[in-house]
Amino acid sequence: MIQPSDISAESLNWVSESIGISNKEILSKGEKLRIESSQRTFFRIPYKDKSSILMVVPKGIDESIESFCTKAKIFKKAKVNVPDIYFKNETLGLLIVKDFGDDVLQFYLNKQNSNKLIKLAIEQIHKIEVIELDKSIFSDFENITKNNLNLFKRFFLEEFLNAPELQMLNEEIDEFYSIIISELKDHPQVIGHYDFESRNLISLSEEKIGVIDFQDALIGPLGIDLASLFKDLYIEWTDEEISNWLDFYVENSQIAKSASLKSSDAKRMIDFASLQRQTRILGKLSQVFLSLNRSERLKDFKTILNYLTNTSSEYNETKRYSDFFKNLIPILEQRLKTL
Fold this sequence. Notes:
Layout: H1 9-19, H2 23-29, E1 31-32, E2 41-47, E3 50-56, H3 65-77, E4 85-89, E5 94-98, H4 105-108, H5 114-128, E6 139-140, H6 145-161, H7 170-185, E7 189-192, E8 201-205, E9 208-211, E10 218-221, H8 224-230, H9 239-252, H10 254-258, H11 263-292, H12 301-312, H13 322-337
Parallel strand pairs: 6-10
Antiparallel strand pairs: 1-2, 2-3, 3-5, 4-5, 7-10, 8-9
Helix pairs in contact: 5-9, 6-11, 7-11, 8-11, 11-12, 12-13
């Protein structure tokens, strides 16, 4: 059931007129869906003889209905499995799309189905990464990296951890991040979903994976989507599983073939992309917690720090920063006890 306070009267009236169902029926039969790091809200509402998803984008945030719809059209043309768009209202920040159901890989994956489903997900990456690099539609990864670093420093280190001793480490953090970004600039640049993790992938059938939450898709380094998949925050994969999927990616990727990449090359690209991704996520999730008091993702912070610790230790360029992340873990644990 949706509460009247969950959606404005004006928005509710527009939804009612669009789908041909009364306000009362929308509220009584609809449901508010889970919220994690997004500032958007989502509702499952009736539509014809099935259901649909209503996305509400609040005013004052960068995301736009127009951008979502434009990228959805491009992704569909590339045969990426994204939801059909039924209705949109850019002024109110409303979008009604096809309901892909509840088999989100974050909860649906298991040891029996993971090999097949992850390979299906990788096939979606193969389709995304060959989309034309149109800078009038897709922003450039390089343009947002500085902001991502500031998210990590300000919201995670300074405001969330709030440990005075960390203020002396800004130079070390900047050096680490500079090494990562310098490396990523040399990697093949492709279209990336930018948050291609299991919570944004839905099993539609035994042979089909649906892709959602793609409005932030951009032009970035090859490994960024694979890093989301292989270094998942909810499921820890074995080295053997990752090696198998990495080989599958390389053997079937047009980009990997054109760049003559071996699996070892792709692994390095994924690892360096993951270091950038995980610092960004810590900053973003800290910002969401501090701004909106959403604590659902705090449980992931230690997993992220462990990934940063372990991955940075594998490469000569970054191994000296491994202890920096490892030393943040007890500070994080102490902070979480106070919440």
